[in-house]
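[stage:ingest] chain + small molecule (magnesium ion)
[stage:ingest] validated
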Amino acid sequence: MKQDILKTLVSEEELREKVTELGRQISHDYEGKSLLLVSVLKGSVVFMADLMRAITIPARIDFMSVSSYGSGTKSRGVVKIVKDLDIPLEGYDLLIVEDILDSGNTLSYLKEILSSRGPKSIRICTLLDKPERRTADIAADYVGFAVPDEFVVGYGLDYDEKYRNLPFIGVLKPEVYEK
Ligand code: IMP
Ligand code: MG
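[stage:predict] done
[stage:export] tokens:
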């Protein structure tokens, strides 16, 4: 698997340090609130698993799965809910946990859907941010790392459902796409 990686973008140690720091910040900001972490499957599971253990205040977790569909000619993507949340959102301070904020279409749509369910507050925590690629008017409240416009894998992120189990974030060799 590692032979398919061109270079490491974020090492295991850098990930560990950043997740610890995010956990500390979130624990501070949500002290006394009703924190509900919502992980967007599947890309954010590794980040979610580490982040929740870096949070030192009481927190609940839930998962949802979405898929983008509709034509690329639309200015804003439409997202279909494949697996919905189990927990009703009223009264919760919601923190959406994502792997990467790219065009922003997925998250802007998701944020709109979840906002309509009446949570007390709603914020976004993304491990990676590709600001150059943004088309939707959305920003994350917590960002791990800003990354250049390169396709990255590992630590939950996939190419063709592979490389999610790589413990660091890397850039794939071009020949892997060309196969
Ligand atoms: P957005 O709606 O364009 O922001 O799409 C974000 C989603 O696209 C992420 O949750 C990822 O699943 C996927 N994605 C975007 N960039 C990458 C990448 O570099 N590597 C792996 N997945 C990516
Ligand atoms: Mg994703």
